[in-house]
Amino acid sequence: MTSIGATGLKLGPGHGDPEQALAALAKVELVISDCDGTLLYTDKSLGEPAKEAVRNLTAAGVRFTVASSRPGKGMHSIVETLGVQSPFAAFNGGKLVDPAGWKTLNAHWLPRDAAQTALESLERDAVDAWVFIDDQWYITNPGGEYVPLERRTVGYDAVVVKRFEDIDLDSIEKIVASTKDAALLQRKEAEFQDTLKGRAMAMRSQTYYLDITHPLANKGEGVRELARLAGVALENVAVLGDMGNDVAMFDVAGVSIVMGQACADVQSHATFVSATNDKDGFAAGLNGLLAARKGK
């Protein structure tokens, strides 16, 4: 792959018309970015290059917002630091939030039977499960390997319960399966995509996290709704991401920019490939967009 024009970005596999890709990039009016693994470094920090790139983007008249698998409360710091004024998507698009007053605009809950099926299966395979209801997350194993990471990611503690049956299973917005056994998690993803088909989505947001949400709680639907709220045609939306759960938004947006560390399959869905997130691939993506606008 070779860099395209002054953007510094590489054309994604399967996107063979650089002129068409550049033209689409130059007319973007709304940018929607994934957070973990894209906007943020791997250590979950927000770098100065990313902050500056967002400032330059908004100064150029292009709106910016975010879409994440995180709960809304876990996105507050990012939204406030970057001065996001447009609605944003939490829970992989399962909840839309207006930062003006932090009002919920729309939400999707897992069907109870799907939640029970997933939780019982995870318990059988001794995979840690977390349940998210609104901005709260519930766990049964406080010693779980990834609990400290999630606490640092979302910025607050979980509620420990003896069993998930003790909470309201009709109000679940997301279940997360977490394990360091990446192969097992991949198998659980395939299992749930079969057993929960039509009732829930199951997609990994990290190699160690598997998100289970309502069928409409995906980033593709989230991007559609965010674009509608902004009054921007999907062809004039650019999205940035790095994982399989970002492919749904790659497939609906006019332009997609994938981080360099993404696997080959995810890269194959993107218009452009940037540097890795830890090498400021997010900032490079926005800077490439701005360069394309200047050259149009």
From TrEMBL:
<protein>
    <submittedName>
        <fullName>Cof-like hydrolase family protein</fullName>
    </submittedName>
</protein>
<keyword id="KW-0378">Hydrolase</keyword>
<dbReference type="Pfam" id="PF08282">
    <property type="entry name" value="Hydrolase_3"/>
</dbReference>
<dbReference type="GO" id="GO:0005829">
    <property type="term" value="C:cytosol"/>
</dbReference>
<dbReference type="GO" id="GO:0016791">
    <property type="term" value="F:phosphatase activity"/>
</dbReference>
<dbReference type="InterPro" id="IPR023214">
    <property type="entry name" value="HAD_sf"/>
</dbReference>
<dbReference type="InterPro" id="IPR006379">
    <property type="entry name" value="HAD-SF_hydro_IIB"/>
</dbReference>
<dbReference type="GO" id="GO:0000287">
    <property type="term" value="F:magnesium ion binding"/>
</dbReference>
<dbReference type="InterPro" id="IPR036412">
    <property type="entry name" value="HAD-like_sf"/>
</dbReference>
<dbReference type="InterPro" id="IPR000150">
    <property type="entry name" value="Cof"/>
</dbReference>
